[in-house]
Predict the 3D structure of the following.
Amino acid sequence: MEEEPESFQTDDDFVWICQYCGVKNSVWVDLTVDGKQDFVEDCRICCRPNRIIVTKDIENNAFAESRPLDE
Ligand SMILES: [Zn+2]
């Protein structure tokens, strides 16, 4: 009898799009943190700060989205 191992992702790299110049950046996210994560990352090209919001759905899949910081 086979059982699926309980393998929850504990960290991942997420791609986010700079809201100012449109370039793709990636950020490492610690998925052991519960709930929503909200932090600021600087674009590697234009160096402008973007707000990154990481949310999880009911199946514990995480999604990252970027927003302009001054929104
Ligand atoms: Zn940029």
Observations:
- The mean pLDDT is 89.
